[in-house]
Amino acid sequence: MLQIAMISTGEEVLHGDILDTNAAWLSRLFFQHGFALSRRTTVGDQLEALATEIEHCSLTSDIVVINGGLGPTSDDLTAQAAAIASDVGLEQSDYWVEQMQVKYQKLGREMPKTNLKQAMLPEGAELLENPIGTACGFAMKLNRAWLFFTPGVPSEFKQMVQVEIVPRLTRAFPKVAARDCLRFYTFGLSESGISETLSPLSLPKGYEIGYRSSLPFIEIKLFAPRGDEQAHSLQQTMVSLLGDNVVGVGKTLPELVGELLVKQDLSLTIAEQSTGGWLTSWLQDFPNAKAKLRQGWMLAANTEPEMATKDLLASALAIATAARDDTASDIALVSGPVHDEKVAVALSTPQGDWAQLIKTKRRYASNDHRNMVATVMLDMLRRWLDDRAVIGRYESIQRESEIFLPADR
Amino acid sequence: MLQIAMISTGEEVLHGDILDTNAAWLSRLFFQHGFALSRRTTVGDQLEALATEIEHCSLTSDIVVINGGLGPTSDDLTAQAAAIASDVGLEQSDYWVEQMQVKYQKLGREMPKTNLKQAMLPEGAELLENPIGTACGFAMKLNRAWLFFTPGVPSEFKQMVQVEIVPRLTRAFPKVAARDCLRFYTFGLSESGISETLSPLSLPKGYEIGYRSSLPFIEIKLFAPRGDEQAHSLQQTMVSLLGDNVVGVGKTLPELVGELLVKQDLSLTIAEQSTGGWLTSWLQDFPNAKAKLRQGWMLAANTEPEMATKDLLASALAIATAARDDTASDIALVSGPVHDEKVAVALSTPQGDWAQLIKTKRRYASNDHRNMVATVMLDMLRRWLDDRAVIGRYESIQRESEIFLPADR
User: Fold this and answer.
1) Which of B224, B250, B276 is the last residue of a domain?
2) pLDDT one-digit tens code per residue, A10-20
3) ipTM over the 0.85 cut-off
4) Residue B204 and residue B148 share a domain
5) Distance CA A382, CA A286 (A)
6) Could you tell me which residue ranges the MoaB/Mog domain spans (chains A, B) (predicted)?
7) Contact, A128 vs A157, CB < 8 A?
8) How many structural domains comprise chain A?
9) Looking at CA atoms only, how far is residue A148 from chain B in angstroms?
């Protein structure tokens, strides 16, 4: 099996001031191309530690991606560490000096002398293009490994990996099988529940199922040999097995709801108490949903301590119909106040009004609780738009009561 | 210098499915206690790779924290890897079996047999308590290093590090100087601008300044020898040098605004177009601000293409006064629609109304843009509550125009 390592550099990453999102991104991308990482290391900006780590990885791995430390300042030491590890000198790439000068000319500025450092590469290294910034990357062979040196700026890093590195790897290791990844999302099922439901499936050779929990959804990934014909029908079978709780195939819940709203030309108003604007704010990133969202309200939640269950439901329903009428929207979604850990959520439509009183089985941080309740609201709407039972079954949520009032009451 | 390493285990972390927040947290905490990490490694759930990594770190480091892989399932291999690396067997801790039985009794359930695996520790290892879960940790000396094995569940991990590990380290390495960390936040200044402003300061021995950019704020950290008397006056000097753009000392902007609203007993209403509910939703996590927030509106932004600058300002002002009157709030904050990359934001108070038309100098993702504009809104309120100039100077934001209408107009 290929041994593949990544080395991240930089004090900020090491001391936890920034999360290493480049590493997570590379891991995912490489995995999909069949190049699963076997180890990742983070070291600070110390020349010797960095050179030692590069050498260690060059002896134990086949492919090593080194990220960061290619900038113009004195604590950017990666090229020098690479030269030490491979026992060569640094030499200037005249080509890259020219490229940097062109970049600065376009900005109407003179290139600072400090940038010359960024054109100093270990002797014999192959330059990797960076069309965005001034930090070129480079590739070199050392001991057992191919080493790829990349800039820390995420946009520059990602472009270099995709355009320069992955094609080189695919050429160098043609037997490594790239895989397709088909995704869909579920809401309201547990990972063990999903795995049990899918257990009757027998996967063809080269197929694999992965889960990723991203509160409150679980993403299900089907890895398949690239271009394999069975992949889509297999995914369809998985989707059917999981039924109602699949909230988006190849798309997220707000994307799906947005599409359905646009297709059916329906406008939406939202009134939020316990969710405090979460749902309204969440939908802003999804153009279709945003286009159909007419108004959002956040109302301070003043409940009376003695409020009964049926009052909570009735109040959410009343707000939903009022919100729909006041704004002349086709649909209204409402979250009531939190009362004794319970929340009423309501959906008002031309066809009738639904409300349910729910309680999460676990206790969540307030932020996560809003997320959870907002997702139930959006899921009610998804179910209605998609002609499914509006009141769903969720493993992690307890339903205390529910009500449906048809429009022609 | 002490060499301190962390090893994270688990396929999910390695393949980028989850971000390694435990590592970032440990790095920060250790740094504050004077134990700066020198390297971090992530390996998958492979017995041999894990054992090799443990051995490698035990030869090159003084302190190693290993995280994850202490669960009851077959892919939890850390104890076994530790035993292989140190060439000893595993033995059952009867004490821990008892502890687990008690935990299960409290839940009214029988302990599954599979949990016995969690009481199997390398011979000679010292048990580390886990009052929350069933995965106990353990400590052992190997080669040059003290090894600490910890569970992957964040709450259990954090408790074990704080209660079991840090005190052991402080005892074992009494010369390592713990440091205090005093924090404050700025908005509207660049890192290089801040560093230039603070450059006249001469720091006493043992002091250090750190920056952390967390869009749209920059957090400034002053590290000081523990309990040193000068620390607070030095921080005060830094705060004075940076002036108006300091938005919170030891607290964040929404915390500060919330405190000031409660202290001055003022209620708030928010109407958002371009920010789409961001500000309303943001304030939900801050009890003081939430308590004084009467209503939030998100209005769909239908601008006419020909809208002039003064109309944008006038419309934001009109919405602000209307929102304040309609809800009988003391204060209203408003963001208008985005028009030609510009946004009008307005603040209405008993003392008068302010509005400014702003444009970010860089282009941001829509999410980040809402964050930025919402922060300007909140900063206007902070400045007003704190008796400062309401219209601030921000390096990253261009102001196109501004207006002030006193209340007695």
Assistant:
1) B250
2) 877 787 666 77
3) no
4) no
5) 15
6) 5-172
7) no
8) 3
9) 18
